[in-house]
Structures are given as structure tokens and as C-alpha cells.
Design goal:
Elements: H1 8-12, E1 13-21, E2 27-38, E3 45-48, H2 50-54, E4 71-77, E5 90-96, E6 98-99, E7 102-103, E8 118-121, E9 151-156, E10 169-175, E11 188-192, E12 203-208, E13 212-214, E14 220-222, E15 227-237, E16 244-249, H3 250-261
Antiparallel strand pairs: 1-2, 1-4, 2-3, 3-8, 4-5, 6-7, 9-10, 9-12, 10-11, 11-16, 12-15, 13-14, 15-16
Length: 263
């Protein structure tokens, strides 16, 4: 499949599966979700939800399914097929979640298990495409304005569904709370989007195909190509009967990465 028209989040959002090792030596799939990569001074990190790696509701700590996962299977793009010049090929790579029963993932230094996102250092990245989201906003985008009613997209894999292999599905909605004010005392803002199971860990983006954004104080900033701004990571809905979803802010993810770099 030719990919020279793919938008940036369509190859940066990664399909992940959670597995448990069974007593008979076989791996049992528990669930699927979404993740994405960011760079650190120590190497690439997978960013996904904490409940994806613990198998537990991050608020109640109750086990979601039958077991907690032992490892993730991450469907990476293959680096020998660079975007946008060739074709997308995916390669599954396993990442253990524990070493001698100790978690490998890194949690936010202050929020710890209250934050429903983690960073997992990658150990098997030979011949895979490392296409990270940028946690540091380009200087020309620092004054971009976004607020309630602005359009956002949750780019992931609802119910494990994808397009033509492992290209994600874009669920589009709106910012539902003031994004620069913390919701419930946490670095979170809300969105109104029909997102569902499997999208946990999805990047939430502000995206413009035309490369045009409003800026603070009025006016617009224009680019010649499509532009994507990562706003945060989706982690579920405030209530199963609501379409109001939770987004942990990019700045909090950046704090986590900086903490990992200083370990």
C-alpha cells in the first residue's frame, strides 16, 4: 500500500496487544490497545496507559480481566520502508513488563500510580521505524490557540479495529473543558468524542490538513504542509454512559520523560 499520502499520526499511532504467560508455556492474549513513541536521551519510549500494563482499573485498582499482562506485543512499522517513499510493513516486537517481578515501566515522579500513563523503555527496535511524537512544541506553534469546541482527533484502534494492516482509525470530537485548567486537580482536560475500548493510550492531536491554526491574540499561522500538535494521551471516559473522555496533558508526559532521563 502506498503511504505517501498518510498523515503523521496514521503511522505514529501503534497497535499493541497485552499477553499473559500461561502455565502450559503458551501466551494468552488479554486485550488490545494503543500506544505511541517519544524520544528520550536514553532511547525511545512507548507511551501508553497505565491500566494497559497493569491490567487494572487505574482508579479502583480492580483487575479488569482475568489476569494482569506479562508482556506487550507492539506492531511497529519497519524502517527499511521509510515513510513516505515506499510501503508500510509491520513487525510485532514483544516487550516484557517485568524483570524479576519488578515493573519495567516508568511512572510520573509525583503523580505515580494516580496518573494513567506510563513510559516503557524499548529493548527490541532493530530494523523498526522510530517515528516519535514531539513533546516540545516548535517555536512557530507555541502561540497556537485551542480551547473548548475546537476539533481534536483520537487516533487509535477502537475494539482492536484498524485499516489495511495496522493503520489506526481517527475518532474526531471536540475539546470539552478549558485545556489549560486542570480537571479534578490533575493534569487532565476533557474531550467530547465517541471513543471506545481499544483506544486507550491513543495520541490526542490537533491536526490541520491545510496547515492553518488560530493564534493567541487573533490571526492565523500558516504552513505549506499538514501540521499535527500532540495534546496528550487518551485514557478512557469519565463514565461508561458518557462520551466525555479524559486526556492526560502533553506537559505531564514530558515531565515523565525528563524524570526517566534523570534516573
Amino acid at each position: 500500500m502506498e503511504v505517501n499520502y498518510l498523515q503523521e499520526p496514521s503511522y505514529k499511532s501503534l497497535f499493541i496487544e497485552m499477553y499473559v504467560n500461561t502455565n502450559n508455556g503458551e501466551a494468552q492474549k488479554l486485550a488490545s490497545g494503543t500506544g505511541f513513541l517519544v524520544n528520550s536521551l536514553k532511547g525511545p519510549l512507548l507511551i501508553t496507559n497505565r491500566h494497559n500494563v497493569t491490567g487494572r482499573d487505574n482508579i479502583t485498582k480492580v483487575l479488569i480481566g482475568s489476569h494482569k499482562p506479562d508482556f506487550l506485543k507492539i506492531y511497529h512499522n519497519v524502517s527499511e520502508n521509510p515513510i513516505p517513499d515506499s510501503q508500510l510493513i509491520w513487525t510485532p516486537r514483544n516487550e516484557n513488563l517485568y524483570v524479576e517481578y519488578e515493573p519495567r515501566w516508568i511512572e510520573h515522579p509525583i503523580l505515580k500510580d494516580a496518573a494513567d500513563f506510563i513510559a516503557l523503555p524499548l529493548t527490541d527496535v532493530e530494523n523498526v521505524l522510530i517515528a516519535p511524537f514531539n513533546l516540545n512544541i516548535h517555536s512557530q506553534l507555541k502561540d497556537v490557540f485551542y480551547g473548548p469546541s475546537d476539533i481534536i482527533s483520537v487516533v487509535g484502534f477502537p475494539f482492536g479495529m484498524s485499516v489495511a494492516g495496522f493503520i489506526p482509525i481517527w475518532a474526531t470530537g471536540f475539546i470539552a473543558s478549558e485545556p489549560f485548567i486542570d480537571y479534578n486537580g490533575l493534569p487532565v482536560f476533557l474531550i467530547d468524542c465517541r471513543s471506545r475500548q481499544g483506544q486507550s493510550g491513543s495520541p490526542v492531536v490537533l491536526h490541520s490538513n491545510k496547515g492553518s491554526f488560530s493564534i493567541k491574540g487573533g490571526g492565523n499561522v500558516e504552513f505549506f504542509n499538514p501540521v499535527t500538535i500532540l495534546l496528550g494521551i487518551y485514557s478512557g471516559r469519565i463514565n461508561p454512559e458518557s462520551d466525555i473522555g479524559i486526556v492526560w496533558k502533553r506537559e505531564a508526559i514530558n515531565e515523565l520523560v525528563q524524570h526517566y532521563e534523570n534516573l
